[in-house]
């Protein structure tokens, strides 16, 4: 396989290398040298594309947020039945296992949102885009009479995303507090209560 030749290709290679290192070591354990080694280049070469680790991680988070939201939106876009759309959305919101790299990445990067405004802004974008997808599903289901919403669609949607985040964090811990099946049961149970509709 040939080496990437354009700046865009090089940046994508470095982003992928950073994602891989974060998955292996956690965000706190990643250095520019680690990323450069993973990408097969020198630290000085990396600095040509990113002036520091923060700028690289900014790009990592931006691309991860976009990928996660796009995947979730695409998963439900062609589904007409509101129940199936909601079930599919729920299924896509939790890590598949502790090694789910994209979910781990977003959870790791989310921790920086407490101390960095740019991370916080992207984390809010991630949250609001997921809420918007849920709102669309809930309101379409209510309009057709399939769902009997027990609260405003936005309130339910925010509750679902918060539950996903909390359960996801437990699922990727070294010692998970819940397994995937239990987490899905909790998330689905809340969705059923909130919509007045069985999803099983």
From TrEMBL:
Family annotation (Gene3D superfamilies): Tetracycline Repressor, domain 2
Alphabetically ordered keywords of this record: DNA-binding, Repressor, Transcription, Transcription regulation
InterPro entries listed in its UniProt record: BetI_C (IPR039538), Homeodomain-like_sf (IPR009057), HTH-type_TetR-like_transc_reg (IPR050109), HTH_TetR (IPR001647), Tet_transcr_reg_TetR-rel_C_sf (IPR036271)
DNA-binding interval(s): 31-50
Domain HTH tetR-type intervals: 8-68
PANTHER family attached to this UniProt entry: HTH-TYPE TRANSCRIPTIONAL REGULATOR BETI, HTH-TYPE TRANSCRIPTIONAL REGULATOR RUTR
Stated name of the protein: TetR/AcrR family transcriptional regulator
